Structure formats: structure tokens, C-alpha cells
Fold:
Amino acid sequence: MVVHRDSEQQLLDAVAQLTIEVRHAVTGLQGGTHRSPVVGPSVEFSEHNRYHPGDDVRNIDWKALARTDRYYIKAHEKEASLSCLLLLDCSGSMAYTGTGADYSKLAYARVLLGAIAHILLRQGDSVGLLAFADDRKMYVPPRRNPGHLATLLAQMQSVDCKESTGTGFSDALSTAARVVGHNGFVVMASDMWTADSQVEMWLGGMAARAHNIALFHVLCPDELHLPFSGTVHFDGMEGEGGMSMRPLLIRDAYMRAVEAERHRWRSLAARFAFSYIDAVTDEVPASVLTRLVRHVKRQRKNR
Amino acid sequence: MTLAAPWMLLGLLAMIPLVLLHTRVPRIDRTPFPAMRLLMDVARAERQRTRLHDNILLLLRLAIIAGVCMAMSRPSISVWRPGGVRSGPAIGLVIVLDTSISMGVRETGQKSVFEQAKEMATKEIDRLRPTDMVTVITAGMPATPLLERLTVDKGELLSRLQRVSVGAGRIDDAAALERAVSLLGTADVDTREILYITDMVGRAGPDLSRIPQDMEVKILSLEEPPASVDNVAIKDVVVTVTGTDAVTTGDTFISAFIVNYGSTRVSGLDVVLHIEEEEVGRGKVTVPPRQTVEKRFHHRFSRRGYHVGQVRIGDDILKTDNVRHFGTEITAGINVLIISGDYRPGSHLSESFYLEKALSTSVAGQVPISSRVTDMETGGALSLDRYDGVFLLAPDRPPDALCHALEAYLAQGGGLLVAPGNKQTSFGCLEALLPREVLSDAIADGDLQIKSLERSHPVFDVFDEDMTGLENMTIERYLHVKPSTAPPVRPLITLTNGMPLLLEGTVSGGRVLLFMTSMDRDWSDAPIRPGYLPLVQRTAHYLADSLSVFQLHQVTAGEPVSITPEMQVEELVVVSPDGTRTRVPSQTASPDEETGLKYTRTQVPGVYRVWGKTKDASAMVELTTATFVVNPAVDETDISKKWDMASPTSLVQFRSYKPEKGWLPIWSYLLMSVLALLFVEGGLSCWRMRRA
Structure:
């Protein structure tokens, strides 16, 4: 895994300090740090219920009996562990490094997802990985054992981009919805260049079914500013073909189009209440992670 | 179209690499790019616009190369111009256009001479090529260039030329030619030429001796001058009073002097007199050829003060000189008292006989003088305050009462002239009032004559410089006074033996003149000399302190006038006859200044009124004494009188302006077009770069 040396310390600090608390309550069988919709043994007080014969007398609230001369049972919210699936886009376009960044978009996405995996596993959540391009390239099911992080990182490091391969968003998202189950957590890192309206429908549908979704929109500075001069022949990295042009003459229009694209995803995220995070590869990964955590917390509070 | 250097068109080959550069597929590196689908969509949408810009830029650049090559091949196109197109190296041309009064001649149904001259100037400018430089100088007084430098912008010059009108003044070709030489000297041209368009009317032709050798002078005259040269003009208008008491009644004679310059008799010519823009008199005159007649109107002014008017005659081929303006001041006259020690009423032997006759003679343009003669006894009893001046003749042993009365009169600022009589023995009590002590009367040793006059004294303003009319005056006897050089006493006339004939001094605050010989013919022959009348009349005006002019100041159109206001003013405005107000530079004008303020815009004939504001006044007041009248220069309206000069006649040309085919070079137009294209191309390129 490649991390820029200047940002290495910041990334380690962030990973050590950050915790992720998802917006929707999760329904895991294992106990954890996330809210669960079911009531169960926990230290987190939920509500008082009338005592009925057969209830565990250990749960009788004696102080309430002394005040009201009635029997009440203290109910506690069950805390469950989260099942998370990391979706890593390995299409050809993710191999692009560009002129203004030190590493490719794929490497940047690996850093982000690796850090997420580390945080979640530290919280006791289970984390899996799905690397996808045209088709599924690699799948690691969610586990919560401490040694699983090394497996995830090693698998992430092993996948690579293949030139002229597209992105199979639909297949990846359907797999994710099935794997993480109800109220799971899906984190996807992609440049979204070939994502169409089908992908929007998938993301909207998953969010509506109370899946927690985070989308890292990974872009290179070159993609934002088109800093080329003269006449350049551009070749598509996902099999779109090539074209010669003078970037100077179309730069304004291109930048407006890119901004419109980003605005499209930002609007979709706002509409379906999932997290959309701009991840430009010249930015320190720690700040991107921090933005994600803050965004999720803010969503949780606003709920 | 012809090309002087067709091989320069080989430069058009430079268009080939430009086209190739535009159409070739550039060698470029292939670059993978992730957002290719988006990039292709944008590129396809922008392709049409960028291709249009590319093609426009290509066309502009091709046009620039083609324009430069065409210009360098020096093309010419065939044109038909009046008089043809000039050839040879680039020239600098100054057209001197005569705008003097004689150019206003217009025959019935024809264009005026000046309009024809303007057309000639226009055609001459049209004949020039784009690189030739030109300007026009109007030669009427004052000579004025239409543009202060030679220019290639013929449009601006022609526009100004159309606004030029003929003047009413004299020609000032000397100044115009001097200005032309100056302008040509600073122009960067190969050939220098002065073209003088004139009707050649005037007293003398131009002095061409000061034109440098490298400048060619051509005098262009009308090919078809007016068929008739008969012209009648009002030469002058003079206002005179009808008698000594006329000043109180306002009775005047207004005389118009009408001259016929033509060769035929002009009969029944209408002459109309206007006073204050109202017709007050009308008559007819017959003017023989080459002669001047006087048409006299009798007019009574109902009030004192300044009056303006004009005399008009019927129209002829030159209208400008058919009107003459005048202005006059109707004032109270001067009352003088003549006290004679030898008073014999009605007798030519009386001391006062010649003096009284001289004073009562009316002189045009001068305030009239009325006089009363009395003896010394009566004079001593009169109230002298009523008189503006006193002449005391032959005062032999005057009575004390007269001396006391005269002393009191002088103390109030009065003026007194004392002259001895034939039987003079003693001045008695009058001695104290004389500027110098009288020793005796001396008999001249031989015939004495006048040696010199004190020219700076106002008494001698009207005397001619060379001929005073007193040159042959002979003095047989004169008073001998005690020599002295004391400043208060000033000799005004000096005799050939060095003795004074007229002394001026200040006594008791009044002015006293002592005439050393008698005012009649007893001691000299002064009364029969031509200078006697102006001498005694000016002396009377001086004693009365009334030397102001009677008629308003007359100025010839175009000539500068010196305005001397009677009071100190802070601001001066001159209102011309056409209503134009001109503020004279706001310097404080003092009435003591000899030169006054110079005003030069006197092109329009008529009455110019002057308004001034003093330091203390809140509003402007009319300065009537500064009002002046501008009239046409009638001495140049004899259109039959052409230049009397030999050498320039060979320069005179009568050019025909029939259309002729000529070759007009257009390379400068092409270069200007290329500059314009370069400007557009640069702007378009900059706009694209900034947008990118």
C-alpha cells in the first residue's frame, strides 16, 4: 500500500482516533458498538416497561418500586456489531496517476478503504472487501477477527487495474446489498466515470432500505482542471476510444461539465441521505477520512 | 489596375505554409485520460465554434499577407479626376486662398468669384494622391491657416474649406505666403509647392522674392473672370454739424461719398440713410464713370450722446461695399470767451477778428466751438465759470477786477491763453498770472520762423508730420521773456532764434498759455497761414480740456483695433454686429495705457459695442467711448484694377478642370486596411487566449 510520507503520520493519527458510528441502527447478531433496533442486554438504558410474571426479576427497578409502589422492568438497548463491505473500483480509469499527484487513484482508494477497515475492525465490526471492474475481481467476506485486517490489506494490494476494462457497478452493488444484509454499511471508492442512471437507482434503493452508504468520489487534479496545452491525442482508459484536440480551447466547457457531474452525485447523496465525499488525490487522506466521519456524525444527529 | 513592382506578389507564396500549418494533422503524443467520455462530449459540442474561429483567423492572416504583398507591389487604379491626378514624388502643397473683399463679386445668376475659387481649391485637393500633404491658408486679413500643419487627411481639410466665407477686408498675401513658407519648411515631403488662388485685384501683387528656391509658386486665376467690372461703392461717410449752435439742436449733415469704379455712368442710384436701424432719409444720385460724388443728408438728432447708423446704396456685383456704417457723438460744444484790450466790433482791425473767425469754423469730426468777444472792463464783470476757456488778447494795463476774476477762474481749473497786442506797454496786474516774466517786446532781427513744435503735446495731434501749415509763418515782433528752465513752464513752439513762441505753464492750478506774438496780423502773418485754424481750435479744445474725438473710431475689416476704455475695468466684452460676444483677456486695462487692449476679430462690418465691468460695479456697463465701427476695405473694391507687376505674371496659370484619366496609387489604402486587419486579428487572438 502506497502512502505519501508527508501524510503518513496524519493518517496514522486519524486511524487511531476516529470512530465510525453509522446513521441507521444495525441488526447484527454479535454485540458491538452500534445501536440496534432490538432491546437486549446492554449498559445503554432504553425505557421502563411494566413487570409481567415471567420477567427476569433482576431487571426490576427497585428505586422506581420505592417511588411509585409499582413494579417496572428496566429495558436496555441492544448494541450490535456492524457488517461492512468495502467496494473498490478497479476499472482501467482508476490506474490514472496524472501530472499533479504522486500516486494513482487506485492507490489512493486503497489507502482510504484500508483506513476504514482498520477503524471498523478496531470497533469490533466485521469488514469485507469486493474489488470490481467489468466483473467481480475479488471478494473477501466480512469477518471481525483481529487478523482479518492483514488479509484485507493484502488482498487490496494484490488487485490491480486492467487497461480498457469498464466498471460493473450494478453487479457490485447487488452483491453488497446481499452480503451486508439489512442495515449494513457499504463503502465504495470509485471515480464514477461510467456510472449511469442504473447506478443511481441502486444507490437510492439501498439507502431507502436503510443501508448505510458512503461514497468516496476519487478524482485526480488533472481530471478537474485539464492542465494540458497544445494539441493532445487523448485515449480512453475504459475502452472509449481516442480523440485529438486542443485542450486550451475547451478547458472552460470541460471544467463546467466536470463540476456538473460532481454536482449530480452530491445532489443524489443529499436526496437519499448517504455520505458523498470528494476525494481528490492531491489531498491528504486523513482529511478525507475526517470529513467522512464528521459527515456521518452530522447525519446521525440530524436523524 | 497596374503594379509598379509586380515581383512583390511572390510574397503571396507565404500563404502556402500558413494554409499547410492550418490544415495539417499535428504530430502529437498520445495521452491516456480517465474522463474520456465526458471529454469527448465536451469536445464534440465545442468543435463547431472552435473550427469557425480557426477559419476566421486563417482568413484574416491570409488577407494580411495578401494585403502586404499587394501594397509592396505598389498598385495604381485608373480614375477620372478634374485636371487629372498628380504624378511624381510626394508633394507638400499649401493653397493660399484669397478671401479679400474683391472675391465677393457675383454676377447675376452666376457663382461668386470666391465660390469658384473654393471649387478650384477643392479640385486641387482632389487631384492629390493619398501620400501628398496639403493645407489651406486664407489670405484675407488676417491670414489664417485652416489646419496648422500639412495633412494627408483631405476630408477634414475639405470640411473646413466648405465653411470658409469671403471677408470684407484687404488681402494680406505677404503674411499668408510667409505662413505658407513656414508650414512647408516643417513638412517632410519631396516637393514643396504654393498655389495662390486669387482674382489678382488689388494695389500690388505678392512679393515673391522671399520664397525659398526649393518651393515652387503657382498663381492660379479664374479662367473665366466676371465679364463686367463696373462696381459702385460707398467710400466714406462723414458727419458734420451745420453751424456753431448746431450742437445744441443736433442738426448735422451726413455725407456719403459714393465712387463709381466702372466705365459707365450710373444713374438714379438709390441711397438710403439709417439711424439706429430706422430709415430716416432716402435719395438718388448719378455717378459719372471713375468719379466720386457726395450725397448729403440733413438730419437732426433728437438727443445727445452716441448714435450709430449706416448708408446703403443699391446692389451691384459686389454687395459688401454697398453699406457703410458710422457712429457719431452729439455733444454740447465748447464755449470760449475772447477778451480783447482793443475790441472794435465788426472791424477787421480788431485783435479778435481772425481768432473769432477761426474758432467759429466748423471742422468735421471735431467738437464745435462757440465764442463770445468782449472788452476788458466787461470781461472783468462777467462770471467766467460759464466758459470752457478764455482768450485774453492785447491786455494792455488790464483792470484789477479782470485780474482777480481770471485768478479765481484759474484756481477752479480753467484754461487761459494770453497774447500781446500791437499797443502792448505793460501787463500790469496780469504779470502774476503769466508763466514767465515778460522783459520786453523785441523786434525780430530779420524774419523769424518756427523751428520746432513739441509733438508730444495734444495741441499738435492733428498736425501732419511733414506739413504743419505753419512752416512759412513769419514773425516780425515777439515778447521777450526771462530765460528759465524751470519744469512747470514748457515751450510748445520754438523760433529759429531759440526763443519760445508758445509757452505753457500752470498758474494757481489752471493752465496758462502765453503766445509771444499777436493773434492778428500786426506782429506776424500767422492768421493767413493754413496752420492757424487748427492751432487755435486745438488750443481752445486744450484750454477746455475737450480733446475727445467726435466720430467713433473707424476700423477696416480684418484689421486689429486697440480698445482703450475710459475707466479702469476688470472685464471687457466686445459684442460684434452678428451678436457674437468676445471676452477680451481679463487683464486690468488702464486708460493711461497708450496701446490699450488689442481686439482682432473684426471680420464682420458693423458697429462693435464694448461693455466693461469695473472693480466696484456689480454689472457690466456699456463703454460708449470705446465703441468702434468696422467697414469694408473699399480701396480694394475697384475690381478693374489688377496687379501692377511684371515678374509674377509669368507664374499665372489658367487651369482647366476637365476630367482626365489618371493613375491613383492605392498602396497606402492597402496598408491602412492591413493595419485594421492586424488589429482585428490581434483582438480575436487575445480574446481566445483570455477565454482559454
Summary: The mean pLDDT of chain B is 84. Chain B touches chain A through 24 residues (CB under 8 Å). The longest helix of chain B spans residues 36-72. The CA atoms of residues 82 and 659 of chain B lie 4 Å apart.
